[in-house]
Structures are given as structure tokens and as C-alpha cells.
Amino acid sequence: MNPARGRVFLWHTTQYHYIYACMKLSPKSKLPNLETSIFTVMSQMAVKEKAINLSQGFPDFGADPELLDLYREAIADGYNQYAPMGGIFSLREAISEKTAALYGAVYHPEKEITVTAGATQAIYTAIASVVYPGDEVIVFKPAYDCYEPSVVAQGGIPVVLQLKGPDFRIDWDALRHAINPKTRMIMLNSPHNPSGTLLKAKDLLRLQEILRDTDILVLSDEVYEHLVFDHNTHESVCKYQDLKERSFICASFGKTFHVTGWKMGYCLAPEVLMREFRKLHEFVVFAVNHPAQRAIASYLKNPAHYQSLGSFFQRKRDLFLHGIKGSRFRFTPSEGTYFQLLDYSEISKSPDLEYAKTLTVNHGVASIPISVFNVNRADHHQLRFCFAKTDETLKRATEILAAL
Length: 404
Fold this sequence. Notes:
43% of the residues lie in helices and 13% in strands. By secondary structure, it is of the alpha/beta class. The chain folds into two domains: 38-57 and 307-402, Aspartate Aminotransferase, domain 1 (Alpha-Beta Complex), CATH 3.90.1150.10; 65-301, Type I PLP-dependent aspartate aminotransferase-like (Major domain) (Aspartate Aminotransferase, domain 2, 3-Layer(aba) Sandwich), CATH 3.40.640.10. Strands 2-8-7-6-5-3-4 form a seven-stranded mixed beta sheet, sandwiched between helices.
């Protein structure tokens, strides 16, 4: 036999058995209705069309050279093997000190803080550790797209409530009505992605009052805690004792220090909850990037590194909004995060997904349509733009947007 023909026959035979095996397996999906993420869709389109990518939430500028030097030093010093499962103590201690200084809340670095592979892992692990089949989890929409799939994967039932009005506020009557004996958890996000709005002190006090005589848990996504503008303050749930005692708080160093690719975050929770969290954390990732932990632990010794972030990103928000001043877009300035919503209803009546694609293909600026995050995909002709970009990028983008 010709050896080449033999190899072709073998390849086809192998492919046949592979396809046949896949047909026989046909595993039942835990997420049968999961669609491709809108972030993937729009980012791929931005690359294909060579558009300015203001869709996905990551900076197009580098991290502080001091932080990068600390990372290199940690590698050179030999911190390249597994870190402790919960994270190195010096980093957990720095997180504890930061939390106490900012919010007056005490977390034991050994028992109540775990370093995670980003905030998304922290969110998933928190949900997986306490949500059982049939449990209901209340999610306020629009919401980050990992929330509901993480609940469904555990057999939980997402109960979705739409945030109300142009300022995206919680409908407290709707929340009271949604709570029942099956309610296991409520998920919060402030500063809020995608709207850029903040929960105020009165909101947390109201929630605390509603939950006081229940055993309902809270998962608070606070990854943008340092990105707050216009003299507002971040109201962490840990400032409210009754909420603190029932809450997981998830945070992100990647978002904070412009190193999203490092996938570095952490979770805060009272010991009784953290004990369950770590049981799963150990088998999901076991340990997190060791040299990055060393670098961040040293970097946190100077609080100016995170205390200056609000003014840094507010200047970028203002540059973006100044660039579209006088345009046909309508907006309320973002209160936090590094996202800005724009209402394009005076420019086009197209559905937001269609208009986002048009804006990318025909005009070269990529954004995120908001309807995909709303209850029943309600379309209010809004797009989300990320302003965590260089001034040059923002000026090029706003010149295009202002001309529409």
C-alpha cells in the first residue's frame, strides 16, 4: 500500500470513530440556552472591521511600571510555585487593612478573605458554595452576563427584576414581592455595570431592613469600588453590619490596577460562609498566580495607588463626554465604573444590537447594546461605551460619534 494513502485512510477512520463517539455521548448541557457572549461578538467584529473597540471593558494603556517591576522582582526572587490555597498572608492582610481603612469593616485575613483568579471566579464559587437545586436567586437587570448562568449551573433559579427608570434604581416593592421561602440569595452590583449608577446609603439601609428577619444571603459585586466620580462615595455592603454578616463581597485587582489579564481578585465573607467558599475554591483553582500576589501585596502598601483612581477615570469620562458635546446622543454622566451609556434614539430607531453592528461596520466604533442585559431584552436605544482608553483613542472615537 502507498504509505501516503495509508495515512489518509487512517485519518479518515480516526475521524469517523471520533464523530461516532461524539454522537453516542451527546451529554446533557447544564446551560442549553447559553448564547455566545455579546462581548465576544462585538470584540470579534471590532477586530474584523478594524474598529475602535469601546465595547469590552479593558484598558488599552499599560499598568503602572512600579507594579510591573514588583511582578518581575517576585519572579526573580523565586516565587514561582504554588501559593497557599487562600492566598499569601501578606496580601490577605493588606486587603484586610484596606477594607478597614475604607469602610470601617474588619475581616480576619486568615479566615474571612480568599484571593481568587479574578472576580468572575469569586462570583461563581460563592454561588456554587451555597446555592442548591431549586433555590431562587434574585438578579437585578441589566446585569453582568455571568450572574444567571452561574446560578443555573447549580440548578438554581434566577428571578430577574428590572432596574427602574433612567437612573436604574431598585424597585423595592417588586423586591419584597419576589422574596419567598425559596429565595436563597440576592445579587448586587455597585458601581453598576453597565449603567454606571451607584447604590446610595438609603438603598443599603432599605435592603438591610427588608432582609433583617430572613436567612437570605447577599452576593455583592464591587469590582469598580474605586472608580467613583463627582464626590460620590462607594457604599460597600460591609459598612452595614447586618448585611456584612450575610454577604459575599467580590472584588478585582485586574480592574483596579489595569491588569485584567492577570485575573486577580478576592472574596470577603464571614467565616461561616468563607469556609464553604474555600471548599469549592480549592478544587476549582486551588491557588492563584503567586508572583502577582507578591507584587500586589507590596503595591497596596501605598494607598495612593487606588485612592487616585476615581479622579483618573473621571477625567477620562469627562474627556469622552466633552468630545460628544453638542452631538445627537443623550446621556447622564456615569457615576462610577469606566462605562458610559449613550441614548442614540435621536440618531436612529434601529434596535440597539443592529445599531451597534452598524456603528462598528460603517463608522468604526464598537460598543455594547444594552437590551441583551434587560428583562425580556427591553430595548431603550442605549449603547455602552468603555472610556478606559488612552486620550488619543477617546478623541478619535468621539470625533466619529459627534459627527453622527
